[in-house]
Design brief:
Layout (H helix, E strand, L loop, with lengths): L7 H8 L29 H26 L9 H12 L6 E4 L2 H6 L2 H8 L4 E2 L8 H8 L7 E5 L2 H4 L9 H7 L2 H13 L13 H6 L19 E3 L5 E3 L1 H5 L1 H16 L9 H24 L3 E6 L4 H10 L6 H8 L3 E3 L19 H19 L13
Parallel strand pairs: 1-2, 1-3, 3-6, 6-7
Antiparallel strand pairs: 4-5
Helix pairs in contact: 3-8, 5-16, 6-13, 13-15
């Protein structure tokens, strides 16, 4: 239909029919330039919409069923926004609480309900997997709202290398927008507690990436770390049961760690001189941050959590205790608990060499709390000792 072929009355009648047509201001009477009006054929739009909705539900249901059959359960996604929500508690009146920072061993192995039963307080969990705690320690050192107690988990290969896989979490917290906070609320309310497939490891792109594609020349044939844990609403996190009960999945996780442990070091650490310089730099960062924290009365405790087998062998070889842990405590003057120094913290068997299964993590947390209360953090909670155990 063209305006040049029909009168203004005919156009008006056409437009009042209610049929969809692409029109502009030129559809008004008196406009000289013709404007095409393309009528959309009549379709059963209600049935089309219903069919699309049914197909969506079927596909989502099939995807959810697949991952539930794989062993997944609904949990809270360990996003930057989830971390920021816990970090915000410090600035919203809980700055005198105990805060846990570190890497995945602090996140997976320190169980908040057990700590609460033992110590009378549920700490704020700010550890982040694959990431040195130093960026978070420096952020807390610069925040005058924080005046509590700080437990710093030390995973040797991350702490003393400064590697920060999730290092963007601190700037994200400071720049988080209202829309990002609203999106996280919607995700926590409508998706995360109900759907098991809502995990980056189960995303379609991730699933496609790890298929057995031909290896491209010049690119490393490395597998990404798979899902290892389950998280609760306040980031209390524990090892996924599949890692314990499924021998094939456990072997896959060990193989993925072996890629890292047996592979060549990164260019920044590929000579003894570079490695030592990096270790010295990370220890100095800890010294500087701790000085600021101590000036405000914050007490800091370093904890070296258990690992075993190939992972422990790697740490002892590349980051030996005498050149890392012992120097860290000597230079900071802070107390430290190393799992090898306490019989009650030894003897655990991490299924993939790095993290404790849930039952062992609960036992470990209870033992750690008893040591802290006995040797470092006295029951009156007035202070922590300034000397190592």
């Amino acid at each position: 239909m063209r305006t040049g072929e029909h009168s203004a009355d005919e156009q008006a009648r056409y437009l009042r029919r209610g049929d969809y047509a692409r029109v502009t201001a030129a559809d008004r009477p008196g406009v000289a330039q013709p404007v095409p009006l393309r009528e959309v054929p009549v379709q059963p739009w209600g049935r089309i919409l219903l069919g699309a909705c049914v197909l969506f539900v079927v596909l989502i249901g099939a995807w959810e069923w697949h991952w539930r059959a794989f062993g997944a359960v609904p949990d809270y996604y360990n996003s930057n926004a989830e971390w920021a929500q816990q970090r915000r508690r410090i600035d919203n009146g809980e700055g005198n609480k105990t805060v846990l920072i570190g890497s995945s061993r602090t996140l997976f192995d320190v169980q908040l309900p057990v700590w609460e039963r033992q110590m009378g307080e549920r700490p704020i969990q700010l550890a982040m997997e694959g990431t040195s705690p130093l960026p978070v320690m420096e952020d807390l050192a610069a925040d005058s709202n924080f005046s509590g107690h700080l437990l710093v988990g030390v995973s040797s290969d991350l702490f003393f290398s400064g590697f920060a896989y999730r290092g963007d979490v601190v700037p994200y917290f400071h720049k988080q927008t209202p829309s990002q906070r609203a999106g996280n609320w919607l995700s926590r309310t409508l998706i995360e507690p109900w759907f098991a497939f809502f995990d980056s490891d189960f995303a379609l792109a991730a699933v496609l990436k790890r298929q057995d594609w031909p290896t491209r020349h010049g690119l490393p044939d490395r597998l990404d770390v798979r899902k290892l844990s389950v998280s609760e609403a306040d980031r209390n996190t524990y090892v996924w049961d599949k890692l314990v009960n499924d021998a094939d999945y456990r072997a896959l996780a060990q193989h993925i760690w072996a890629q890292h442990l047996d592979g060549p070091p990164p260019p920044s650490l590929n000579t003894p001189e570079k490695l030592q310089k990096t270790i010295d730099t990370q220890i100095q960062r800890a010294v500087d941050a701790l000085a600021k924290l101590r000036a405000r009365g914050v007490q800091v405790l370093f904890v070296r959590q258990p690992n075993a087998a190939h992972y422990l062998e790697f740490d002892n070889k590349v980051f030996p205790r005498a050149k890392t842990w012992d120097v860290l405590l000597a230079r900071t003057g802070a107390p430290g608990i190393h799992f090898e120094d306490y019989p009650e913290l030894r003897g655990f068997d991490p299924p993939e060499w790095s993290h404790l299964k849930r039952a062992d993590a609960e036992t470990y947390t209870a033992a750690l709390c008893r040591i802290i209360a006995r040797d470092v953090w006295h029951p009156d909670r007035a202070r922590m000792a300034d000397s190592p155990h």
